Every structure is written in C-alpha cells, then in structure tokens.
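Holo model, uracil. Inputs:
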Amino acid sequence: MAKMRLDKLLAHSGIGTRKEVKKLIKKGVITVNGQIAKDAGMIVDTARDEVFMGNDKIDYKEVVYIMMNKPKGVITSTYDPSERTVIDLLPPEMTLLNPFPVGRLDKDTEGLLLITNDGELAHKLLSPKKGVVKKYYAQTQGIVDENDVKAFKEGITLEDGYKTLPARLEILRAGSTSEVYIYLSEGKYHQIKRMFKALGKQVIYLKRIAMGCLILDENLKPGEWRELTKEEVESLQN
Ligand code: URA
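Output:
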C-alpha cells in the first residue's frame, strides 16, 4: 500500500502511538518533502514522499500481521542465544520486517499468538486499560467445580499476594482430569497456572484460542502460521 495517512505511517514505523505522533506533528518536528507537516491526516505516498523527524529520515516499514499456532517447546521471544523462538519458525521474508510477538505464552503453552511489527496495535492489545479478553482451553489435574468458578469470578490471591481481576471459568468436563475454558482480561506471568495452583490444582495442558475478536484458525497445526485477513486486522484495530 503506497498511500496512507501521515500519523499511520509514523506509528507503523515505530515512532510512537498514534496519539504520540500527533503530538510530534503539532510540535512541528515532522517534515514531508522539506515542508513542516501540520495535518496528521495528510496523505503521503510511501514510495515517493520523504518524511523526516528532525534530521532523521523515516523509513516506512511494510506492516505484517501473522497468526501463529505456537507449538510447545519454543519461547515467545524475538531472540534467544540457546532456545528456539517463535520468530525462528518464520521465513526470512517475514523476519526481515522485524515482527515481534504480542504478549507472551509460556514455553509449554500452545495456541494463538499474534506476531506483528505494528507497534501501535500491539500497544493497544496489551494495554491493561483496554482489558482485551483472552480465551484459553486447559486441562487440569484435580476435579474443577463450582467453587473454582466462583473463585475465578471473585479474583484469586496468588502466592505473591497479587489478587487477580474477575475472570470467567467454564467447566467443559469435570473429572480426575478436568477440561475448562478460561477467559482472562489481564496477563500476569504464568497467570493461569498460578491461579489453579492457588486452588490446589495443576494445569497439565494449556492452549490459547482467542485474543479479543481474533480466533485461532483451526486449520493451523502447532508451528504453522498464516497472515491475518484484512477483515481480521480491521476487527482488531476497531
Ligand atoms: N497463563 C499461563 O499460566 N501461561 C500462559 O502461557 C498463558 C497464561
């Protein structure tokens, strides 16, 4: 896409959020073809127009949005000296665009991971203020019952004293191994495992299946990925 709004181009180039880049434009530090830009909504041609912030030329990066079914055994990171990362599963034409994972899944967790170089969208999806709901499927050792549903709803005090926000637990099957759906609007370190641990149960399998309106494509096997459709990108942005 060659033509786009100036604020979008700046935000996608990693300069800051849309709000932050609007402030920079107001301050008069952004120039387009040598002229100070006044209108955040001005349309620029990424192939032709020269955009500068002060003396620095802004190199527009193509944006990319990838849905991955993260497999077990790889870490959610862009680089690691000894472990395989989710980025290692992508081909060079994708890694060249410097995408990064939005949020974290544990090494042994599977499922939906969004990988993008759109810093603005990542910021929006991770912002605690937005409280984007993440849906997980889990198997636990120990019989999950209505007391656990109530505890999730009321918030659970973890071993470090943190009390979780109200969350929804849906029981699919209760038994020595139980199956559940969990809906969380926050994402603390090892949160689901620690919530169940506090209730005397152990998570033995965990998979994320949705993040806001983005649902894991069932056709993707663990380790597989595809680019988001235009509709999926738009639904996340709105
Ligand atoms: N909660 C966890 O415990 N692990 C994850 O990977 C995600 C949520």
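The chain has three domains: 3-57, 65-128+217-237, 134-211. DSSP finds seven helices and 15 strands in the chain.
Archived with the compound record.
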